[in-house]
């Protein structure tokens, strides 16, 4: 029977894959018949701080583009690596110098017109439709955001991915068809024993994590990196692309936190985060040792006031507001390295002071903006700390994992392993692995996107705010529109009025607009499903469907950060302060992006994965609320339609 069931499931997955393939291939193939005959196009490109006009160039496959250039202010360039083109533009001259990114040492060609054939080589001509032209001459603090789009039609990626946006929910309906026919009770909740226990299958990992110096070893490495970031941002060059601190913080760290650590490890970053370490050392008066004692009901001796955090501030509201503040000023923080350095110093000082006043890791638990991100999206993460056997925890009355012992400190996050059912709060600090005398702590490797529950309205607002910020970051940092970038340019253009308007729109959308829309969708779902629950509770629960698509939207945002700027990371490692050093011999290496033709495909792929997991989460949420599949399907229709529409917008943004 087991073999028969596996064969049946295998056939089902095969057919579903073939159907999805058809939804991608058929639109992508049909759009090829929309190709128009090649023609000659004469386009004048006007460069300025911080953009280009036109900000989008549309061409048919095989068109000959006759490009002329000019600049309104300082020197600029027209950098289009996919076509081996780097055009240097000089103020007051229509003659440009054309360099080859593939051979930067070659003498430039001086010309008044650049002729470009809008076609990629070989089979890529049918797959690659979008390229981004950028500026490779520093022209001001927001130079990194100066870009435009070259779209070669027919846009295969756009048509194929929109076909998948339609196909994914259809295949999803096919997957639950049996459940809909039976119309029986809802699914069982996710079990805390789901997943593969790494500590059981890898005994050496348990032995390693039980060592007192395990966590500090990781934190020591990140503290050294933090020290380097602070020094280089405060005392290094003001050019973000040549400042090691900016590259490490806003390119390398942000990429790995968002695209690797959080989806795979949940809150694993908290294990090594350097921000709370000085305060925690002061609070414990120990680096790796343990003080046995009694402080505020814990079995360890802590120093400081050890006050309890105010109950009215225990939700996600403080972290949501903090992340919105940082998100509002993100462009300024990236463009001005010193501001990034002072921000880090401020967070370290705040964490230190809070450790002396409040108990445990109050900063991490209630105020840390990074915790706002990883805490929310760790719900989708694969790594989770859980009780190996919940029955053992039920019989335990001393709660060593929460209260501490002579072998380890009380949980810095105030948690009891037996009561951990979600990834929001556990920072995987490994103290519970050291203190549990029954070895009943499991480190589970589970399927992605397991958790769907939103515990209260503050977490629902956090999920909605994070999604709004993901959209805003994409528009401001990845979009081609100079007018939008002007809204956040308070550095050299002093557009404080536009910035105020931008901040007002951002905060209103995050705190009122999207919640209002979600409330409307919940009300419509309530009417369709005829559920007794309040609209507010349905809206709060439905916010769980925004977690996977929000995380994948953030991943789509950070992908070009690393792939476009990898060369600048290597350059800044050789010259960290931008003072003319060359430790590694790479400070003057030519700019080469990592596989730029693949960036839109990766971004669109992220959105499609986010849509599939978002729809699955919506189904599980409404099935848990309605308890009957057909009722759940009716109730989730408005939310699912909105998720499909949002994904369609993301696909259009990244593909076109």
Structure description:
With 656 residues, the chain is an alpha+beta fold. It folds into three domains: 115 residues, Cupredoxins -  blue copper proteins (Immunoglobulin-like), CATH 2.60.40; 231 residues, no CATH class; 247 residues, no CATH class. It contains 24 helices and 16 strands. The strands form five sheets. A four-stranded mixed beta sheet has the order 2-1-4-9, with no helix packed on it. A four-stranded antiparallel beta sheet has the order 5-6-7-8, with no helix packed on it. A three-stranded mixed beta sheet has the order 3-11-10, with no helix packed on it. β1 and β2 form a beta hairpin. The mean pLDDT is 94.
Features:
Immunoglobulin-like, single chain, alpha+beta
What is the secondary structure topology, with strand pairs?
Layout: H1 2-30, E1 40-48, E2 51-53, E3 56-60, E4 64-71, E5 76-80, E6 85-89, E7 96-99, E8 109-111, E9 114-117, E10 130-134, E11 147-153, H2 156-175, H3 177-182, E12 196-197, H4 198-201, H5 203-209, H6 214-235, H7 244-265, H8 269-272, H9 277-284, E13 292-295, E14 298-300, H10 317-328, H11 330-335, H12 337-357, H13 362-367, H14 369-377, E15 383-387, H15 390-395, H16 400-403, H17 431-435, E16 441-445, H18 457-478, H19 482-486, H20 496-529, H21 535-542, H22 546-574, H23 599-626, H24 629-655
Parallel strand pairs: 1-4, 3-11
Antiparallel strand pairs: 1-2, 4-9, 5-6, 6-7, 7-8, 10-11, 12-16, 13-14, 15-16
């Amino acid at each position: 029977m087991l073999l028969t069931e596996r064969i049946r499931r295998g056939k089902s997955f095969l057919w579903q894959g073939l159907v999805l393939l058809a939804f991608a291939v058929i639109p992508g193939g049909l759009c090829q018949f929309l190709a128009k005959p090649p023609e000659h196009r004469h386009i004048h490109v006007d460069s300025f701080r911080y953009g280009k006009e036109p900000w989008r160039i549309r061409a048919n496959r095989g068109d000959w583009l006759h490009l002329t250039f000019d600049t309104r202010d300082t020197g600029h360039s027209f950098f289009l690596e996919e076509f081996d083109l780097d055009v240097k533009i000089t103020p007051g001259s229509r003659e440009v110098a054309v360099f080859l990114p593939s051979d930067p040492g070659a003498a430039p060609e001086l010309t008044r017109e650049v002729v470009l054939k809008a076609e990629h080589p070989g089979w890529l001509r049918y797959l690659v439709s979008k390229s981004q032209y950028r500026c490779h001459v520093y022209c001001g603090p927001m130079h990194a955001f100066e870009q435009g789009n070259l779209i070669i039609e027919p846009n295969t990626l756009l048509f194929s991915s929109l076909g998948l946006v339609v196909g994914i929910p259809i295949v999803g309906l096919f997957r639950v068809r049996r459940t809909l026919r039976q119309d029986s009770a809802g699914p069982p909740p996710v079990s805390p024993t789901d997943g593969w226990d790494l500590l059981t299958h890898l005994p050496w990992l348990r032995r390693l994590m039980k060592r007192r110096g395990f966590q500090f070893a990781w934190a020591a490495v990140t503290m050294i990196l933090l020290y380097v970031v602070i020094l280089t941002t405060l005392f290094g060059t003001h050019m973000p692309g040549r400042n090691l601190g900016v590259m490490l913080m806003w390119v390398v760290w942000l990429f790995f936190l968002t695209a690797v650590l959080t989806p795979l490890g949940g809150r694993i970053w908290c294990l090594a985060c350097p921000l709370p370490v000085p305060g925690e050392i002061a609070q414990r008066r120990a680096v790796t040792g343990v003080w046995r004692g009694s402080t505020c009901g814990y079995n360890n001796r802590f120093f400081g006031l050890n006050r309890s955090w105010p109950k009215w501030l225990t939700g996600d509201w403080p972290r949501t507001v903090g992340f919105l503040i940082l998100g509002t000023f993100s462009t300024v923080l990236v463009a001005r390295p010193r501001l990034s350095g002072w921000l880090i110093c401020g967070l370290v000082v705040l964490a230190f002071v809070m450790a002396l006043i409040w108990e445990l890791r109050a900063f991490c638990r209630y105020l840390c903006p990074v915790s706002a991100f990883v805490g929310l999206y760790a719900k989708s993460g694969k790594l989770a700390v859980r009780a190996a056997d919940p029955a053992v925890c039920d019989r335990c009355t001393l709660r060593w994992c929460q209260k501490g012992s002579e072998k380890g400190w009380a949980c810095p996050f105030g948690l009891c392993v037996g009561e951990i059912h979600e990834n929001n709060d556990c920072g995987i600090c490994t103290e519970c692995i050291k203190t549990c005398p029954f070895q009943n702590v499991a480190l589970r490797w589970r399927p992605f996107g397991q958790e769907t529950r939103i515990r209260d309205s503050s977490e629902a607002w956090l999920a909605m705010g994070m999604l709004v910020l993901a959209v805003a970051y994409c528009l401001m940092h990845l979009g081609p529109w100079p007018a939008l970038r002007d809204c956040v340019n308070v550095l050299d253009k002093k557009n404080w009025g536009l910035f105020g308007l931008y901040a007002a729109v951002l905060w209103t959308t995050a705190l009122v607009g999207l919640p209002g829309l979600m409330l409307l969708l919940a009300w419509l779902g309530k009417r369709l499903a005829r559920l007794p629950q309040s609209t507010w509770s349905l809206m709060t629960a439905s916010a769980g469907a925004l977690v996977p698509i929000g995380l994948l939207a953030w991943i789509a945002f950070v992908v070009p950060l690393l792939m476009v700027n990898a060369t600048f990371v290597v350059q800044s490692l050789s010259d960290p302060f931008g003072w003319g050093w060359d430790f590694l011999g790479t400070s003057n290496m030519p700019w080469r992006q990592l596989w730029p033709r693949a960036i839109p495909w990766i971004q669109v792929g992220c959105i499609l994965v986010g849509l599939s997991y978002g729809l699955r989460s919506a189904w599980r949420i409404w099935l848990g609320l309605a308890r009957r599949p057909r009722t759940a399907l009716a109730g989730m229709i408005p939310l699912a339609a909105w998720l499909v529409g949002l994904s369609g917008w993301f696909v259009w943004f990244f593909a076109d």
